[in-house]
Amino acid sequence: MAFSVKSKKSGKTYFLHERDQVLKGGHKVKLYFFATEPKEGAIDALPAGYAVDENDRTGLPLLRKANKEPKA
User: Is the pTM of this model over 0.85?
Assistant: First the structure.
């Protein structure tokens, strides 16, 4: 089952996906995005080191790097 999150603003359910992308310089990056339906690339768990947040204005979910502990 794909990882899902429900929007607090709209009530819609969004599913997390990932895709490998090659940039112009040849660098490979992993893209994470949310979609309203689980399709090819849907993943079952939140990636390590990331947290889900929601855009206050639109209600769309987004992935952010989890906060690191403050330095002593």
Answer: no
Q: CB within 8 A of 65, min separation 6: which ones? A: 49, 50, 51
C-alpha span between 59 and 52 (Å, rounded) = 12
Query: What is the residue whose two structure tokens read 């330095």?
Result: 71
DSSP state of 4: E
Backbone φ/ψ region at 58: left (φ over 0), alpha (ψ -120 to 50), beta:
alpha
Four-CA torsion 46, 20, 56, 6, nearest 10 degrees = -50
Asked if residue 70 has pLDDT above 90, the reply is no
